[in-house]
Amino acid sequence: MRDGTPLTGDFGQRLRQLRTRAGLSQEALSHAAGVSVRALADMERGRTRGPQRRTVQVLAEALGLDDAEAADLEKSAAVGRPRPRTATGPAATGTLALPRDIKDFTARGTALAGLLELARDTGPDRPEVSVVAGQPGLGKTAFAVHAAHRLAPHFPDGQFALDLHGMDPEPTTPRDALARLLGALGIADAAIPAGTDDRAGLWRSLTGDRRMLLLLDNAVDESQVGPLLPGAGPALTIVTSRHSLAGLESVHRTDLALLRREEAIELLTRIIGPERVRAEAQAARDLADLCGQLPLAVRIAGQRLLSRPHERLSKLVARLAAEGRRLDGLQAGSLRVRAAFALSYRQLPTDARTFLRRAALAAGADFSPETGALLAGLSYDDAVACAEELTDAGLLQSDAAAERYRFHDLLRLYAAEQVAIEDGPEIRDAALDRTTRWMLRRATAAALHFDVEHEGSPPGGAHDGDPDPDGAPAGREEARAWLEAERAQWLAALRRAHETGRHQQVLDTAQAMHWFSDINQHWEQWVEVFQRSADSARLLGSRRDEAIHLNYLAWSYNMCVHDPHNALTSADAALAAARDCGDGLQEGWALGYGAGALHRQGLVPEAQTRLRAGADCLASQKSAQARLAELTILNSLGTLLRQAGQPVEALETHRRSERICRAGIPGRTDELIALYHAVARQQIGNDLAALERWPEAEPPLRQALAAFETAQMPAWAGPARLDLGHVLSALGHPEARATLLAARDDLTGLRSPRQAEAAAALEALSALSASSTSSASSASSASEETTAAR
User: How far apart are CA 482 and CA 177, in angstroms?
Assistant: First the structure.
């Protein structure tokens, strides 16, 4: 030995002598070798007599032993290891060695750190269990194997891996699994008890004091895993499963998420090399996205490219870009994304399989159990049960707050394939038609909560009411929440109704959406809604309905997507239709919408001419609807007058609007009139600001903003807040900056062109503030100099 003192005793004594000679504490050696303090203590006390060769190697390196000393330490460890038995038969398999680790394993740092912490927490009375569950393709087995290799030095009494074949038609029984585990510990076949409970008892007694790592891969359920878990001792068990195994108590859960895009690219780089990825960086990013950042899919793409060293990444990207060919492209040898999904799908009960594949027909990023029930032809309660079962099986992902579910993109493609294979076009179309009818009836009924002209009643019996009155949204808040959550679904239903010739239902739904669209005018899909309804009206041969819906379309082009050219085209078409059928109300609206489009194109005189014509046309109409239209036209006319440098005439025009509001309109609610009054007040405030009558401008603008916020109309409140911010800035009001900041944020969220105006107003205010501060500083300096001179 180095200091001339021979080492004596068994492995534990030798280890303690070597550590002491090196001047290391157990904590220091633990840190240097990557072996837990508890494991070191067990070795030195003789509780662990024969640690694995790999553990001895890392200890020797940390202690700085030469080759002879390392060999001597290994010999003393080998003496304490169990001798191989000579039994024969199926159980005589020797140790259940860990599978080969993957050299290009990528990411999962946080999950690995969690398992390392768990390994350090194991103790005589704390055998730890970690469940790694999740959807197919997340790389659960690869992660567990990699983690087991990383953790091996912490478990010197052995590492065992057993595939439980949970996805096979006949998974491994607990009885057979216990036989293999006991055999791995050296128990002869003849000594293994016959019954499952007796085998489990023997297994627990043999593992009670062992610091061992057990990997149970591909478990099917809790009943398969439970008997295999050590009951005591410093063991760590890692269980992988496609099911959540929620019934296992007191276990740690390792959540594996999809890779981030940069992690997916890193995995691809490790497989095919950095040169190919650098040469086609954008293609690599696209490939990661087309794989949905699913580890299995990225690995398959990488292996495919690795086997074809001259093939460009962009070629595979082009192949995968076609959804119908994507799953075909994601296969490399025996590795296939489709096969991974099929294993789970085939194990599902009939209703769950139906629910999963039909849910792929749902529109949008996620769907509700309601939609799933309609598509699958199940009751709501049965649909919820299926959705939960599929979530536990890792085939759907549940929303953290709402009762909604989503697919991984690739799994949705697989489920859609099963619709074509198992259902066929007739059943698929019947499911879509059933869902379309229901969705449009619900959307129509929900939208009518906002129709102040009918106060929640259907217009002229045009729709049949909610399809499920007991489950229908109650009041505006619930109706708004439903319409927003199901926006993609009812829009898809409207699209299908139009394409399949149900034009009256399209008209009824779009008509009901009129007031709701006004509240949410920042939604771009209103263009599609009213384009389809205008087309349906034309196909039905109703010029009056065509005029109405072309006017709605002109509004959506003006207000939702800020496209004045198409707005003018639609308004002109509406004007022609209105004159054809002699509808003065729609003629007035068409003139107003056309004026708005002309104004946005900078054709102010032409816009004013149309607005005056529209106001004259509507003034001759006697209906309450005409009065509301007249208010809108007058407010628009006044705005143009102000912008044309005629603020006095603009103020007179807006005062006229206010007088109409104050007089009231028969048959219209106070709530509705209050909104029109708020618009008039907003414009009056702007007129007064244009006349630099700042103190008078502030109150009407504050009143308008409060009314829009009370009515929960963000598309109207944002511009009003900006107008108020301008006035407060001119007044030097302390609220000016906060008001402009809020207006900028509101308008940015609404994608309003006025967000640039808000940003400019903030810059001007900041510059003014800086200038004022500089002036004040100069004045202060001058005062100090004067005082000093005295």
Answer: 50
